[in-house]
Amino acid sequence: MVKGKKAKNQRKDFQKIKLKVGKKIPKSLNETTTTFKSRAIQIKEQLKSSYTNNEPRTRRKQNIKELLSHMQHYSTTARHDALLGLKELLTFHPEVIIEHLSAIIGCLGETFVDKDAVVRKTAASVTKQVFAAVTSEQISPFFPIFAAYLCCAMNHIHEEVRRDSLHVLDVALELFPRLVTSSSSQLLQNFLELISQKNNYRRAADPVRTLTVNPSSMLSTQKWRVNVLKRMTTFLQAFQWSGGSAEQAHSTEAVIAWTEQKSDVFQTALYGGAKPLIANAFKLKHPGHVKQGKGGESAAAGVAEASVRLSSFVETLLPLLFDAWTEASPVRSKTSITDYALTPDSASLLDTIFKVILLLLRHIERAAGDTEDISVSWLRDKYSRQFSQHFFSHFPFTLNETPSSGKRKRKASPNQQVKVIVSGPTTP
Predict the structure, then answer these.
(1) Which one has a higher pLDDT value, 20 or 203?
(2) 185 or 235, which is more confident?
(3) Cα gap 85→87, rounded to integer Å
(4) Which of 52, 200, 293, 411 could form an S-S bond across to 207 if both were Cys, CB 3.0 to 4.6 Å?
């Protein structure tokens, strides 16, 4: 009887307990207590040393290393905020630029090919701020890195990146034109790639370049070519400035001309602050940049190679300029037999083409004094017929001005015409 009563009072598994009013549920034997207690610990010395080390920070308490790290973030918003923070930091603490110049140039170069247009635009603005705060001697050791990223942007597969790369090029040409010309062999080739492509259907040894047309582009083909040719004009002008004696007199950069030295003799150039700018004479510079030294034969070979590069570039560029003008050539005016009506885009293209040709002509004149391989007579004999056919046979021109559609309208008739007469010889 005792054993049966004890077994009856034992609780079975999954048995519902009937509770009486006013009694609590008894705790299970395997219940785990999850309550805990916590207390805050304040270490004032560590917090004090973290924010009082005089390290420049933004309003969000970000230093230069954190900002450069966020510029490589996968989020577009994070990259843009990092560029804005970097701009703020460099505005109030410009001394940070010199200390972290190499890292800043590298991180900014990666944003030149960013997929977001806002990031690329902000990167160009920050680049201008950085370049304005440093000298040519300070940026010259890191300029090849910048030029490499710029070339990648100019050759990018997306048109938007190529278009925005021209703004970065404008910044470099405005502040450091001489350093930009040191990368001429790469940048001049990029200019050709922006407006043309190689046509090698017949698999010739030397494929011919033809102008490219992109119907899906946001800009018209003429405006895009004008934008590229304007940068080429500024680039060719920088060549003339870099070769002038006035700039060389005021420049503090060290220019080294490599000559043949004996194996047991070593010469060291002394300079202070930064590495010297080594001028490479075998790029598309006029042959006068090659300095004669003990190795006369090597200098003569450099002059010959420079003239060959110049003539090759002229032979590639001028047919493209003729084709570009042929596509935008004006039509004969209905009011006059001798007048040709120019649209604003055609007039801008004509002006830019003539500026490029004039700069090339001046460059050839300077090169003709050092070598007989290239001269103005060579250019005249080779392209005089094309000049007469494409340009001089259409004079005089008439430019049609369309009144603006904004609120401020000029007092002009709807079909106002401005006659542009260019006087000069009929042969180049």
Answers:
(1) 20
(2) 235
(3) 5
(4) 200
Task: Report the C-alpha gap between 70 and 75 in whole angstroms.
Answer: 9
Sequence-distant contacts of 71-75: CB under 8 A, at least 24 apart? 71/107, 71/108, 71/110, 71/111, 72/107, 72/110
**What is d(CA 76, CA 121) in angstroms, rounded to the nearest whole number?**
13
Report the pLDDT averaged over residues 273-295: 43
pTM beyond 0.85: the answer is no
Give the sheet arrangement for strand 417-420, strand by strand.
Answer: 331-332, 340-342, 397-400, 417-420
Please write the tens of the pLDDT for every residue from 74-132. 999 999 999 999 999 999 999 999 999 999 999 999 999 999 999 999 999 999 999 99
The mean pLDDT value of the chain amounts to 75
